[in-house]
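2024-03-11 09:14:02 INFO queue: dequeued item Enoyl-CoA hydratase/isomerase family protein, len=268
2024-03-11 09:14:02 INFO validating residues
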Amino acid sequence: MASERVRCRVEEGVARVTLSRSDKLNALDRPMFDAIADVLARLRQVKGLRAVILEGEGRAFCAGLDVKSMLKSPLAAVEILQREADEATNLAQEVAYGWRALPVPVIAVTRGVCFGGGLQIALGADFRFATPDCRFSVMEIKWGIIPDMSGAATLRSLVGIDRAMELAMTGREFLAPEASELGLVSRVCEDPGAEAEAFVRTLLAKSPDALAGIKLLYQKAWALSDAEVMQEETRLQKQILGRPNQWKATLGSLFGLRLPFGPNRLKG
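2024-03-11 09:14:37 INFO prediction written
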């Protein structure tokens, strides 16, 4: 499986998925969203799949949303938030939460930067192995929006509400050791790719039924209403997108402007 944006090869039951837009630090444009969703759909059909290693090409895991490309096509930003009546996730959420739906262990290998939507994709994995200098950020506040790629559903099982809100409200950057202390990173190591490969070899010696059962059981035990959380993400984001305060935040981040914000118009 391969596309312009994502490469995937499956060998001996192990899928190695690579976000492939290294010139943009694997930032998420509309083709990237579509490519990740396509790979996820194809992996669900792979017989004998045992594990997935997810990484980014080049210097970074993923720098988050490619805001400039989305500004050129505002309709694309709206489209990825749409969901059919019978779907639990929209496209934005599927590319992150879809890794949780796979009945096999998924390990995200992060280096360089893991920002915004990239962090939400990594949080959708079951484990995150990171280099010590990997930088993380819940960055959406920079653009005047909320995390809306299932981050509220995945983050809540890893950190307390106060820490989650502090990270989301400030958008500050932090390194892998702090991410590990917070519970966002499973293992900090100099070569997370090699560590992930060794970890997968350990898992291949275990019963795939037991591994799938553990993943399903623990997800239910830690998060009983993820679908409702993700619907709320979308409802709030639709109120925020395109409003004056969101544009002011985005213009401020892109051009270093300090524009005064207007009053909160969010409906509870």
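2024-03-11 09:14:37 INFO annotate: Residues 208-222 form the longest helix (15 residues).
2024-03-11 09:14:38 INFO item closed
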